[in-house]
Queue: 2 jobs
Job 1
Amino acid sequence: MSEYKLETKEAIALMVNLLCNKLFVLAPFYLKQIAGNTALIVTATFYLVAFTLWSICSKMNDIDKDLLDITTNHILRKFLGSIIALSITVVTILTLRQYAEGIKVMALQNTPINLIIVVFGVAMLSGAFLGLKSIGKTNGFFVPLIFIVTLILVFATFKRKDLVNLFPVFGNGFGNIATSSIIMLSMLFEVTILFMLPSVLKAPGDFQKIGRYTFLWSGICFISVGGIYSISSPGHQSVQSYEPFFRLIKQIEFGNFLQRFDSFFLILYCISAFLYLSAMLYFGANIFAKTFDIKKSKRLILPIGLIISFTSAVNFLEEYMFYIVGKSNYILWIIAFAIPLTILLISKLRSTE
Amino acid sequence: MKKIALVLLTLLIILTTSSCYDSTEVDDMIYVLAIGVDFAENGYYEYTFQSAVPLNISSGVETGFASSEESVTLQNIKVSAPNLYSAIDTTNQKVTKEINISHCKLIVFSKKLAQSNLENQLKAVVQNTNLRPLVYVAIADGLAQDYLNNISSPFELSPARYYESFFNKDYSPQSFVAQLYDFEKNKIVAVPLIEEDNKITTSIIKEYTQIGTLDNDETVALNILTGRFKSGYLTVDKSLPAIRLNHDKMPNITVDTGSKHPIIHFDLSFYGTPTSIINNKEEYDEVVKMYIENLCKNLLIKSSKEFKADITNIEKFVKIKFLTQKDFEKFNWDDKYQNAEFDVNVKYRTIR
Amino acid sequence: MNKLFKILKNFILYSVKDENPKFQFDPEEADTQSTPSKDITVKQSIEENLSNVKDYFNFGISGDIKIREFKISGVKAFILFIEGMVNTDFIDQNILKPLMLHSHEKPTKDTVLDTLITHNQAITSGEFKKIASSVNFGDCAIFVDNVDVAIICDVKTWDRRGIDAPLTDAVIMGPHEGFNENFKINTALVRKIIRDENLIIENLSVGAQSKTPCAFMYMKNIANDELVEELKKRINNISCDYIYQVSELEQFIEDSSFSLVPQMLKTERPDKTAESLIEGKIAVILQGSPFALVLPITISEFFTTVEDKNLRFPYSNMIRIIRLLGILASILLPGFYISILNFHHEMIPTNLLFAIEATREAIPFSALTELIIMEISFDLIREASIRVPSPVGSTLGIIGGLIIGQAAVSANVVSPISIIIVALAGIGSFATPDYSVSFGFRLSRYFYTFLGSIFGFLGLSLGIFINISILCNVNSLGVSMMKSLDNDENDNIFRYLFSYPIWKRELRHSYLHAKHQRVQQHISRKWAK
């Protein structure tokens, strides 16, 4: 039986989910902390920067090949593959922990966090184990729904807009905007997976189209959510909450009946978490297998999944998680954008020689 | 097949032997509808938790509800504690069920407490995930527990509905709404002050302390200047008929920061219908226009000279003029406002 | 006195008499006597044939096997049939009478078949296997001396149910004809609708011993050959002695036996079957079963009825939305209720919360227990009502409503709100058009309730995610049941959820890879120019 290949729209839905997922956890928090009043400008800036970098990379890319196929040097290939697989694993660990802690604050306050991580781990493993077909189709089914409902919920908070949060326009100066944009590029770390997609696509010729639509839809989501979060949520940074989206949704009130949507938001939160985690685990295992020429990547899913679950359950993370996430933002953009750009440049130069 | 069965069995065992930590039955909780905070002895605070007795509400034992010692539909539980959370703990000790504040509609502070410092109280509740940011905040003229003990209404079955309707009156220009959300947003908040027989005036809270009160007319002016005024009846003069006033559009506020003292221009636009026949329309229009202008100007001067606080939140129109945060902080709006000049222009027309 | 002694003796010296040992079936060895292979051919000699026939058909033991010996112009012959399955008048008038009275010369194989037997369906066969399967299905076999074949005539007749309205697939605006147990009549009903020579109805046989006739239908100029070959291969490669019902056949040929969702449609309606054939699907009808199997399908088939195509565009969409809500309620509503009640109290409006709390105050059970009790009672009533005799049927409805509805609430055993939830979920499951899939939904409802009671919305989301992920891997004859989002004009998500006006339904479903994609011209209403 031939292996399943992703259709175009499924790939777009998958990438939109991977990129926009951080909005449900800590992205608005970091945005506000780093960018302050200039959140909207910074979001638009870093998105444009990311799109430009991606366009440059995709023009240089051969259609059928992903990043690992392009690197012909064995050592470099192994090095690159390990870095990418390792960073995907680390990001998944951190995100899993963020999700579990978020749920703990929002709904299940007395449940031990290890049990919540078990639930997420089960979903992650079963989603990844069932293969690319199930990942592609579930993303294709859920992501448009989640996207539309998220936008509706976010725009519903617009009633409490306070446009003064956008001013002064340039905030703490251009320097701050520039550094914030670069750091926030790390929020789009999952672009790495976009570079690895060509080998699993049914129509590899649609790669550029997939990238464009991904950036379009996730850009709409990021800018709306990030922008509206900075507009509708209160201005003081001291009252910022670690569950920014949840606090945002609590403000929705239309009449006496249309309120209290924050618990309903939990369903979206959980499903998008499961989709994200299973996709990341699958691609991490795949990249690892491809790097080290392991034939059956399915056998790696269980060990890597267990490593991810157990590591995120470690208590050490409780104290240092925000610190680690904050610091990792300084590094991840290099792996997502700088390294692929370098490699593609080198291979392009080589091929022209 | 055996492996799958083993995995499923393990999962089932994990799920069933770990108890449902957060699963609580609805009838194991007391849902607090209002919280009252007063001063108590030894630096403690007296918390009053008002909750409803669901059995008696839904069976319609009484028409309407009343809070009193003999009431069967409401219960007021008083405890003394250093902060809200230890008050909840102490109350849990005293009663048979667990206290749950996720359905709280109102937090009432006593006037004395508002005049001293509300910082500890408000900061404790603003970040709470159980308390929604849309909880109403009010100040009672006297003790909060007296207010909670004396509320009654023949029109509603439960106080939940009562609080939702009482504190959210878009249609009444003489009342102002304050929610917890406003304390996160602004440093200066206008909070309803409830006097005896449910008469509401407005109290101004700046940085968690009450700095002054506004009477009914001033509250109307505050509503007009902040754009919350939609429509209402206005009595301009005792000899003239009352007028049904509607606003045409949102107030247009511009700030002139070039001169030594900032000049703030308000452009307001209304239309109205007198409630009975008037003889001289132009004269009447002029009288109404002057009335509104004087009303607004008096409030602005009071806020600038007496309160020394920007209660109408003109700061946001000033912030627009600066490009960076540093420039705005250098400008020091708080000091400049005390010497600001106000220019209120009202456009009014009578329609029949 | 003697009697007294006897009684005392029996009383004191009482011992258990040896009763006849009860029959216990526990053979030490399996009975390995195999039946001899019955691979016999028709011989020239009539005596040999007669003896073989008597042996083969257990004549004398089976009371309904009849053999009538007669002569055709002095030559010995006999007819073999099964009483109760044949039209005896027809045999007398069209077979025995011409053979016995109107033959004037020695019969040969050709003359008997060509000139003497006045019946429209007569064939010859020399194999006893073939003769036996025909006779067992209501044919008669004529053996003639010095002829090495038997003549088989189709004279079957037996009492059967007429064409009634379908029980499971009822519609209001549509035909009220349904299949019955005779597969020839069923195929005729379908042929009556399609009236196209490209409709192929192949006769297959399933079951080594039962040899149940099976009609395999498809459109030659539309259906994909690969699908047809695959299904035929599956049906022909079932190694089983007896298959009587189409449900058994379904379980033999489905892709995944453990999935909660069936992978083929079972319909009682000829119009639905015909429509599916025109789309490019394949239908299988089995003798003795009033259902036709239609495959391949996707999950959207479970949400649509024939009525969606018969109603006008606005009405059909309204009905579809309500039906979808009903289906969602039947799966998720109890789980949703229990999650909110146990974990997410802040989601309930305050006045409703007080109402629920007041009703639950006196109930001794937890919310989950109460819900499970109600669900099981509801399923019990549903199960009992299928088998209840009709005079008692209405009483059962009253008892069910009174006991469970009114009395249980008054006795504070259950709360009214859980009755409402369970009733809504039950009504939702009745709104599901397909009977088989409603079982799957009912089963999954228990899982969701269980998960919702442990983890709240987290558990519910986990259930939804795993359910849909598993469903993505389920195939129906190799076609994935969850279709992708691809931008086919006829395969996008709107086409699943909503119905289109009839002049917009131009193309067939692309997953069938039919030979002709287009059903209508782009402008099908030429008068509207």
Job 2
Amino acid sequence: MDEHAQHQQQPLAPAGSGDSHMALLLERWVAAAGAVLVVASLGYLLYQGLLGDHSPPDIAITVDAIDRSGADYLVRFTAANNGSETAAQVRIVGTLTPAAGPPEEAEVTLDYIPGRSSATGGLFFRGNPGEDELELRATGYQNP
Amino acid sequence: MHQETSRFWRAMGRASAGALLFVLPLLMTMEMWELGFYLDRLKIALLLVVLLPLLVGLSYFSGFKHTLDLWEDAIDALTAWVVGALLVIGILVLLAIVKPVDSFDAMAGKAILLTIPASIGAVIASKQLGQKDNGDDDVVCASYGGELFIMAAGALLLALNVAPTEEMVLIAYKMSVWHALLLSVFTLAIMHAMVYMLAFRGTEAGPDALGHGPVFYSFTIAGYAVALLVSAYVLWTFGRFEGSGLELNIMSSTVLAFPAGVGAAVSRLVL
């Protein structure tokens, strides 16, 4: 066993045999971790590529908070992509419809929402979204 | 006496430094994060399959430990993968590039994609950072196939660094066919100058033994072909060929073959 260890570490090693055995063990453990990582990565990628679902982006928007922001109101939201494919340049349009008068629109474009992930943003309105009817929806996206 | 264990940790430290050196530019490139979540998983898997023999081969020619047998080289390659993966994951978290709201798939995609250049860096770290403590002659005499292999590795390394950006295709849009033609002549000239200066490191013959002609045919042209193929493969992997015609694909490969060719020519010095 000792001889084996010395053989593997041949270039320079007048070191203690316990130490070179330790070094050999470390080396083997790290390499084994590497093998596990590589196989896991490859397995995961193949699984996702071949059997994973490929559903188109499905954007659901929830309002997180409504705050005053100077003269305006800030509506903070989370846009979750429940599909598996990534949506790029996701356009979010918010419409605030007061009881009387014309509706007010605000919009923002989110760069990316990866599949099964979410992104956050905010929209500014003149009117009070707490009182008037507020609707947020995604109106379009681009394939990355 | 902890000489052997400390030698192991020093090798790991060197590998980490090499991985960091090669992956940092890519870690800080937005396109790389985006590619991590939308790139076809099978393309990443294929890249990983291509990478493994590359790491083993690089370890043979210039590993962070000087190894002779295939088993040891495979161990070095796997070690490089661990070092690269840990480093990449750590920095992705540190730079807030992966966040808890991202799906596991998006995080894994980013990490795996970035571990590829990191592991190449880890394997060639010793040569890059001048490991001299072994005191042995670290030039492995490469066969012609080996030379081409090293050139392919160098081409891949440079190509990976620039290919993720949209500029490759953008430059191809801007160029006319004449620009592309001129660029390939220019790339060949630069490669030939580099190859000629570096051609004979570790080989039997000195520069005087061979003229420009034979060097041009067996190294420069071959190296350029390797660089073009590697460029096309990398562009295809990153989805830059999607929806573009053959002419544009050839143009963007020619653009990428410029840095890839420089990488190929210089790799025989660096790797």
